[in-house]
Design goal:
It is built from 18 helices and 26 strands. The chain is an alpha/beta fold.
């Protein structure tokens, strides 16, 4: 399959389907003709300002229409796009700008406020190229686009790094083309498919959200802000918007299950495939899905680090996988090979555990301006003698099953994923050690009852005592919310091995904080609903006895746990609590009131029916009950 630049494939789609909707989001829509015209004129603006081949161009845009236009324009110039998530902490965004040190930035109308705050202090000399979709189109187009080579750098995405600095992964053009055309062919994506865009623009998963539909004449469909945190609402949106294809992490899939597996839940009649990646897919979740929907919708389990461009193995999930101990990550996609190697670099026998090494011509170019980190991760193939034949050492372990599929078993190091986002505990540790009161620290993940990591715990040796809240305030501007430790455990000395390293296996089991740590005075549950919610909160949060007026977030909750809480409420009470209603008052007392109000509303119909029955004879009452479906 000969290489084709992905923006060229989008142009071909625009020529075939000029009036079809390309991007649909809360801010509005763009047809293919409008998308291409806006990208053409922005490319002219970039080129006229001196941006060209190899230039690094960050994109400030919350509006996904602007993001799509900017990416296409930057590629036309031969540049390297850097999509930013403008909801990330400001210090983290500033670090990304400092690392890439761009001379040009694209600023969409939706990103002007954040850009104004950051660029004046971080990059005062950078040229700002405005992108305003409400302006009058110019009709300009580059006389000559850059003729891309497959090996050209195309993008930079950041991932967590062990030095306290995020690692910048540089992807190449051929990697995008290879993956997008593989997925569209595998799934049979056709013109008119509607594909959800749920991933943050700062993760490489956004590439499949955007380009799978845009190269085939489909529509990128963006939900309202915050909807991915509300599983039931997201399921209803997928149904009402007639979405054909969803890419998401298993956490989001799990949050939707109570709604989509209920007998009266969204039918998802248009849905054709859910492609899952970024976390381990639980067999229990697969079982729930198949019990309600069977195999009508394809479940695709994907695996692969960003360093090898999106994902590189795949497995079509079957009902039999629900009976396994874990769902396989499958076999390599065409154009990729996987070797399982032992500690001496030798191939592992089938059934034995080895480290995953990926060999593909479509991997990334390594880490931006970090040659040592690149050499450590991209190594000469241990199974050959060609020094130019490289493989990526993933740090993940797997075993080969009898049918040749791969069964993922865990990480080589302490790196974990929370909600599909890679977390390097060493990065959190590095930032904690920067606090003057901290001598040393060890950060570990605390699992839920299924063994999935849900939040972090920091064991800390102090130079002088400080409150845990002060340490969290120190980290909050520098890390995403889910990466800030919810538990801080003081220790006189961290346990160490004979070589002086922290012995993580000897760390104590995290002690759950007493409810007195919350600001509100403890109030015990007073109703059956509140008692049931206390049990739910105890399973989710690092506390044994939450009071009904304690704040969910002050007890260690975060956005990912909100999804699980509301999904559990839906499953246990049969009530869908709106996300915004819970966030307005995140206590057991308020949540119980919302549940009881909803149940009472549902009960009004029954009260009306009972009133109608009063005074009727037996035959009349039986007839009325039959009409209302009651028994």
């Amino acid at each position: 399959m000969a290489f084709q630049a992905v923006h060229g494939l989008v142009r071909q789609a625009a020529q075939r389907f000029p009036e079809r909707t390309a991007v649909e989001c809360p801010q509005g829509t763009l047809t293919y003709a409008e998308l291409q015209a806006r990208a053409d004129e922005l490319a002219v603006s970039l080129r006229s300002c001196g941006a060209g081949v190899g230039c690094v161009v960050p994109v400030f845009a919350e509006d996904r229409r602007e993001l799509a236009v900017a990416i296409l324009a930057i590629l036309q110039c031969g540049g390297v796009f850097v999509p930013l998530d403008l909801t990330a902490p400001r210090l983290r965004l500033r670090t990304m700008l400092t690392v890439t040190a761009p001379e040009w930035v694209v600023v969409g109308a939706s990103g002007e406020n954040v850009a104004a705050q950051l660029l004046d202090e971080a990059l005062p000399t950078a040229r700002r190229i405005p992108l305003d979709l409400t302006s009058e189109p110019t009709g300009r187009r580059l006389e000559r686009e850059h003729p891309h080579d497959p090996e050209d750098a195309a993008y930079i995405f950041f991932t967590s790094g062990s030095t306290g600095q995020p690692k910048a992964i540089v992807g190449r053009m051929c990697g995008i083309d290879h993956y997008i055309r593989w997925e569209t062919e595998l799934l049979g994506v056709e013109p008119g498919w509607r594909v959800s865009q749920l991933a943050s623009p700062a993760f490489d998963a956004v590439l499949r959200d955007l380009f799978v539909p845009l190269v085939t004449g489909g529509t990128v469909c963006v939900p309202p802000p915050g909807l991915t945190l509300d599983g039931a609402a997201l399921a209803r949106w997928l149904d009402s918007e007639r979405i054909d294809l969803v890419h998401c992490v298993p956490t989001v899939f799990r949050a939707m299950l109570p709604a989509v597996t209920a007998a009266d839940g969204p039918a998802l009649a248009r849905l054709r495939c859910i492609a899952l990646a970024g976390e381990v897919l639980a067999p229990a979740d697969v079982a729930q899905w198949f019990e309600r929907h069977g195999e009508r919708v394809t479940l695709l389990n994907l695996y692969g680090p960003s360093e090898t461009t999106m994902t590189k193995t795949y497995h079509v999930v079957t009902p039999a996988d629900a009976e396994r101990a874990s769902v396989p990550i499958g076999k390599p996609m065409p154009g990729a090979r996987v070797a399982l190697l032992d500690g001496r670099g030798r191939p592992c026998e089938p059934g034995t555990i080895g480290e995953i090494h990926i060999r593909t011509p479509f991997m990334s170019l390594g880490y931006f301006h970090q040659p040592e980190a690149t050499r450590a991760a991209f190594i000469p193939n241990p199974l050959g003698d060609d020094p130019e034949d490289f493989v990526y050492r993933t740090g993940d372990f797997a075993r080969q099953l009898p049918d040749g599929t791969l069964d993922y078993v865990g990480r080589r190091d302490q790196q974990i994923k929370l909600g599909g986002v890679r977390v390097e505990p060493a990065e959190v540790e590095h930032l904690l050690r920067a606090h003057p009161a901290v001598r040393d620290t060890a950060v570990v993940a605390v699992p839920d009852d299924r063994g999935n990591p849900v939040y972090l715990c920091a064991f800390v040796e102090f130079v002088q005592p400080v409150e845990a809240e002060e340490l969290r305030a120190h980290l909050a501007p520098r890390l995403p919310d889910a990466h800030v430790p919810r538990l801080v455990v003081p220790m006189d000395r961290l346990p160490r091995t004979i070589s002086g390293k922290v012995d993580r296996r000897a760390l104590p089991t995290p002690q759950l904080p007493a409810p007195e740590t919350a600001e509100e005075e403890y109030v015990a549950p007073r109703t059956a609903t509140e008692e049931a919610l206390v049990a739910l909160w105890t399973r989710l949060l690092p506390t044994e006895t939450p009071g009904v007026r304690h704040d969910f977030f002050r007890l260690g909750g975060h956005s990912l746990l909100v999804m699980r809480l509301l999904a559990s409420v839906s499953a246990e009470f049969g009530v869908d609590v709106p996300l915004q209603a819970f966030l307005a008052a995140p206590t057991i007392e308020s949540l119980a009131a919302l549940i009881e109000k909803s149940l009472l509303a549902d009960g009004d119909d029954l009260d009306d029916l009972l009133a109608d029955l009063d005074g009727l004879d037996d035959d009349e009452a039986e007839q009325l009950l039959a009409q209302n479906g009651s028994h």
